[in-house]
């Protein structure tokens, strides 16, 4: 049976990248049943590009939001959730979030669904992100086999509905939260090295690298990340020279949130499960 899937894209001022994403989806050997592109108060040519590229394509639907155009992570998730309103009543097996700044080869989704078919416990899957560096696309340092970047998260429908979809969080991290909740409910989460995704906008470039690193620390605190795990994680990343400053700023952001008494933004159940996972990883790292 051919997998039935839907895609949701939240796009804000993406005229520089979105056409490449649309062309990549149009070239797929297995096309989506529906693709809702939510233009989140875009003020550039995003809407016009989607309209023109989608002419004669029955599965692409543009939804244009209006109002306050301030960029924030909560609004991105709310735009995705708005897009989900347009797929009610459709019969599909998978639902994917797709950012408007990625592209991939024509068999990307075909290969990805082969992974889902071979592992019935796989709840969230996706490829490995590669980014341009010195004129070549190379694997992103943050790639992790047990995690799937928000830009390309594909959910088995039962998993997505079981966790209640994405939760809008002040400092970001809805993808991380979704993964924790999925594992908490018995699903597996995995990305795959043999499936590549080209990411055309450098990570955190929309907000600035240093601001993004500090915000990531606040995000870690808001998710209830274990303090010892956070310290070990950031110090391990310091070994990677290109991201040493970012690692320090991330730890500073976490510490800032911790000592200011910033509230955690997820349930105690999610925090407890996350910390159990992190303590287990600490023990393995320290060979305890």
Provide keyphrases for this structure.
288 residues; alpha/beta; Spore Coat Polysaccharide Biosynthesis Protein SpsA, Chain A; 2 domains; nine-stranded mixed sheet; 9 strands
Describe the structure.
- The protein is of the alpha/beta class and 288 residues long.
- It folds into 2 domains: 195 residues, Spore Coat Polysaccharide Biosynthesis Protein SpsA, Chain A; 77 residues, no CATH class.
- 41% of the residues lie in helices and 20% in strands.
- The protein has 10 helices and 9 strands.
- Strands 1, 2, 3, 4, 5, 6, 7, 8 and 9 form a 9-stranded mixed sheet that branches.
- Helix 2 links the parallel strand 2 and strand 3.
- Helix 7 packs across helix 9.
- The protein is globular and about 55 Å long.
- The model has no long low-confidence stretch (mean pLDDT 92).
What amount of the residues lies in strands? 15-25%
Overall form = globular
CATH architecture of the largest domain: Alpha-Beta Complex
Average predicted local confidence, pLDDT? 92
Output the CATH topology of the largest domain: Spore Coat Polysaccharide Biosynthesis Protein SpsA, Chain A
Helix content: 40-55%
Report the total helices: 10
CATH superfamily of the largest domain: Spore Coat Polysaccharide Biosynthesis Protein SpsA, Chain A
Q: What is the helix/strand order?
A: EHEHEHEEHEEEHHEHHHH
Sheet with most strands: 9 strands, mixed
Number of domains: 2
Radius of gyration: 19 Å
Number of strands: 9
Which structural class best describes the helix and strand composition? alpha/beta
Unreliable parts: none
End-to-end distance: 46 Å
CATH class of the largest domain: Alpha Beta
């Amino acid at each position: 049976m051919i997998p039935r899937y839907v895609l949701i894209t939240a796009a804000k001022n993406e005229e520089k990248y979105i056409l490449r994403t649309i062309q990549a989806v149009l070239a797929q050997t297995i096309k989506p049943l529906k693709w809702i592109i939510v233009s989140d108060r875009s003020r550039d040519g995003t809407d016009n590009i989607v309209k023109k590229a989608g002419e004669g394509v029955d599965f692409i639907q543009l939804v244009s939001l209006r109002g306050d155009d301030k960029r924030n992570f909560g609004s991105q998730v709310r735009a995705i959730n708005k897009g989900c309103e347009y797929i009610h009543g459709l019969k599909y097996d998978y639902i994917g979030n797709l950012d408007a700044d990625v592209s991939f080869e024509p068999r990307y989704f075909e290969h990805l669904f082969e992974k889902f078919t071979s592992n019935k416990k796989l709840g969230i899957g996706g490829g490995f992100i590669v980014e341009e560096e010195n004129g070549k696309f190379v694997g992103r340092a943050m790639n992790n086999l047990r995690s799937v970047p928000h830009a390309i998260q594909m959910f088995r429908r039962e998993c997505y509905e079981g966790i209640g979809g994405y939760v809008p969080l002040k400092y970001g991290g809805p993808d991380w939260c979704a993964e924790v909740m999925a594992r908490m409910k018995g699903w597996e989460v995995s990305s795959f090295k043999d499936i590549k995704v080209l990411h055309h906008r450098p990570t955190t470039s929309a907000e600035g690298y240093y601001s993004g690193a500090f915000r990531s620390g606040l995000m870690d605190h808001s998710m209830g990340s274990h303090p010892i795990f956070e310290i070990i994680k950031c110090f391990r990343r310091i070994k990677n020279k290109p991201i040493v400053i970012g690692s320090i700023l991330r730890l500073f952001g976490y510490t800032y949130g911790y000592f200011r008494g910033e509230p955690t933004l997820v349930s105690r159940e999610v925090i407890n499960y996350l910390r159990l996972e992190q303590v287990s990883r600490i023990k393995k790292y320290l060979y305890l």
